[in-house]
Specification:
It is a single chain. The protein is of the alpha/beta class. Helices cover about 40% and strands about 25% of the residues. It has six helices and five strands; from the N terminus they run E-H-E-H-H-E-H-E-H-H-E. A five-stranded parallel sheet has the order 3-2-1-4-5, with helices on both faces. It is globular and about 50 Å long.
Length: about 140
């Protein structure tokens, strides 16, 4: 069905990536390429100036290790750690890399999403490719 699938993941304890990975496997062609991506929100400069470069490097290393560990559930998948606002960064990455399907986990919308919007909502409304939202 799809040849280039993007699977954005949140690397915290509260998010289970198994359902997204299973959906991607079901939607993928035999020769499909899958990319597992995590978006790291930018740190405001006034905060970043107070954090040592060693802390940044260790954090980056830990994120990459966790990303690779999560992505190992899909053999042959690529991993990418990108920076930016999650919704925009996912859409931009998909557009720049000819992604034809995004498989994205979502939480149950709450009151705060009325004012702030959710990552899944932004991706669904702005992506130029198919988006499968997993709940």
């Amino acid at each position: 069905m799809y040849k280039n699938i993007l699977i954005p993941v949140a690397l915290d304890q509260d998010h289970d990536t198994h359902a997204s990975f299973e959906a991607a496997r079901q939607l993928a062609d035999a020769d499909a390429a899958c990319t597992v991506v995590h978006v790291q929100e930018p740190i405001p400069p006034y905060v970043a100036s107070q954090i040592s470069s060693e802390v940044f490097a260790n954090t980056q290393h830990e994120l990459l290790e966790s990303l690779h560990q999560n992505a190992s559930e899909i053999p042959g998948s690529k991993t990418r750690l990108i920076s930016g606002h999650a919704g925009r960064a996912i859409v931009n990455f998909a557009n720049e890399n000819d992604v034809d399907c995004i498989v994205l986990a979502s939480h149950k919308p709450g009151f705060e999403d009325i004012f702030l919007g959710s990552t899944a909502n932004r991706v669904v409304h702005h992506a130029k490719c198919s988006v499968h939202v997993i709940r």
